[in-house]
Design a protein that fits this description.
Strand content: 35-45%
GO biological process, one term: V(D)J recombination
Shape: elongated
Family: Belongs to the RAG2 family.
Structural class: mainly beta
CATH class of one domain: Mainly Beta
CATH superfamily of one domain: Kelch-type beta propeller
Radius of gyration: 32 Å
Keywords: Chromatin regulator, DNA recombination, Metal-binding, Nucleus, Zinc, Zinc-finger
Organism: Vireo altiloquus (Black-whiskered vireo)
Protein name: V(D)J recombination-activating protein 2
Strand order of the largest sheet: 2-3-4-5-34-1-32-31-30
């Protein structure tokens, strides 16, 4: 193992505990930023580019038919390969407002050029026993008898509304220890209650191989313990109803918030995590899956730096191909507030790092950081730091490096706002003088509200500026008949005003001098 320190050059607070990393064809993408996305990158997805001793964040784009994906912390994610399509499944997580998501998304890379990476993000609708909103859980894909299903387990959620009190309104509890089978082909979910799973778990590790999932560690809020058990879930998918069984195996590890990275076809490395609330786990383990067996052994750990040894918390995520990005809080150590120290841990040898391996197994874990040990991070800033690395070689492109600006709302610019919308990311050119590289949008107040392009609504630039300054509700062309508000003005011919005639001056009578004298003489007689 080798540990490479990464020195920060600019603000690094965009990278916060609970983030996720996605690996597409050797390119690593960052997801789950701190705060809501900004104009510079409305998708909230960035390419982590390591080149010339600098690790930069470059904005990624969504296709026009993509849905909106909020930045989610502590979601469950895993990879899915089907029909030569490589995509990530993302479920749950926390938004920057600390709201919990119950939605499930599919992300795939549809276009890749030297200057632009474009993703397609699709939200899936589910029926049946739909899992409640949660975070700190895991999701995996299993294969049995030529079929595939996703398995979701664990996590935390907010206390139900009926049980909340004013003092503990936002308190969290363990989700019920149910196992959810999700069939994406038919869009249905089924929950299973197994007697071996008595306590809810969160921030655990799960590794899938064929029809088997191994669940290791995890934290139970109810018991205030880290589980020492090792669970083996076996899923059989016959023609009829699926069969789910659970077995408790010996040799478990009492750890929470650990990270798993895959270094070969059947070998994984377990890194980081916590033994207890104030004790990090500095020991590394190798996990080998062989047919229906699992072997866990302690491995040689890297030489941890004094900063890592003495810090109270740490966090990170799997970068893929045997590498892990680790971070420790840098408060009171750096001049930049909320800055962090970062390291890249490579669990494979130098020659193995250069090999392009096709990894067929799927591992899932949450962030290597317990929320109880962290401080809240809310604002969004740019992220750029230097590193001694030569991987992820990508041609130079425009990087995310912009000053602070107003946050964007929960919407994308390249949506189809109405039936006649003709805004296309590939053909769009600025229409208003205030536009730079994104089309102007305006919020329609109908229902829960939705965004429309000002150009599609035939708004003049004067009217658009007036609406941005006035405190009035706007309704788009589709909803103006259903709501009373400010309607898109119709173009009408200007009426010519007739000029007013000037007033005539009153004529005055001029008197001669003799007449004036005669009048005065009579007046004093």
């Amino acid at each position: 193992m080798s540990l490479q320190m990464v020195s920060t050059v600019s603000n690094s607070s965009l990278l916060q505990p609970g983030f996720s990393l996605l690996n597409f064809d050797g390119h690593v993408f960052f997801f789950g930023q701190k705060g809501w996305p900004k104009r510079s990158c409305p998708t909230g997805v960035f390419l982590l580019d390591v080149k010339q001793n600098e690790l930069k964040m470059k904005p990624a784009f969504f296709s026009k038919d993509s849905c909106y994906l909020p930045p989610l912390r502590y979601p469950a994610l895993c990879t899915l390969r089907s029909d030569d399509v490589y995509q990530y499944i993302i479920h749950g997580g926390k938004t920057p407002n600390n709201d919990l998501s119950d939605k499930i998304y599919f992300m795939s890379l549809v276009s890749k050029t030297n200057k632009k990476m474009t993703f397609q993000c699709i939200e899936k609708d589910l029926g049946g026993d739909v899992p409640e909103a949660r975070y700190g859980h895991t999701i995996n894909v299993v294969h049995s008898r030529g079929k595939s299903m996703s398995v979701l387990f664990g996590g935390r959620s907010y206390t139900p509304l009926a049980q909340r009190t004013t003092e503990k309104w936002n308190s969290v509890v363990d989700c019920l220890p149910s196992v959810f089978l999700i069939d994406f082909e038919f869009g249905c979910c089924t929950s299973y209650v197994l007697p071996e799973l008595q306590d809810g778990l969160s921030f655990h590790v799960s590794i899938a191989r064929d029809d088997t999932i191994y669940i290791l560690g995890g934290y139970s809020l109810q018991n205030n313990t880290r589980s020492p058990n090792l669970y083996k879930l076996k899923i059989d998918l016959p023609l009829g109803s699926p069969a789910v069984t659970c077995t408790i195996l010996p040799g478990g590890i009492s750890v929470s918030s650990a990270i798993v990275t895959q270094i070969s076809d059947a070998e994984f490395v377990l890194v980081g995590g916590y033994h207890s609330e104030n004790q990090k786990r500095l020991v590394c383990n190798t996990i080998v899956l062989d047919d229906s067996k699992i072997e866990i052994a302690e491995s040689v750990s890297p030489e941890w730096t004094p900063d890592i040894k003495h810090c109270r918390t740490w966090f990170g995520c799997d970068m893929g191909k045997g590498s892990v990005l680790l971070g420790i809080p840098g408060a009171n150590k750096q001049l930049i507030p909320d800055a962090n120290y970062f390291y890249i841990l490579r669990c494979k040898g130098g020659e193995e790092d250069k090999e392009e391996e096709s990894l067929t197994q799927i591992c899932s874990q949450t962030s290597s950081e317990d929320p109880g040990d962290s401080t809240p991070f809310e604002d969004s800033e740019e992220f750029c730091f230097s590193a001694e690395a030569n991987s992820f070689d990508v041609d130079d492109a425009d990087t995310y490096n912009e000053d602070d600006e107003e946050d964007e709302s929960e919407t994308g610019y390249w949506i189809t706002c109405c039936a006649s919308c003709n805004i296309d990311i590939n053909t769009w050119v600025p229409f208003y003088s205030t536009e730079l590289n994104k089309p102007a949008m305006i919020l329609c107040s109908s229902g829960a509200g939705h965004w429309v392009h000002a150009q599609c609504m035939d708004l003049s630039e004067t009217m658009l500026l007036r609406l941005s300054e006035a405190n009035v509700k706007y309704f788009c062309n589709k909803h103006i008949d259903l709501n009373k508000g400010l309607q898109t003005p119709q173009k009408v011919a200007c009426l010519k005003k007739q000029p007013m005639k000037p007033l005539r001056k009153k004529k005055t009578m001029k008197l001669s001098t003799s007449t004036k004298k005669s009048f005065l003489r009579r007046l004093f007689e």
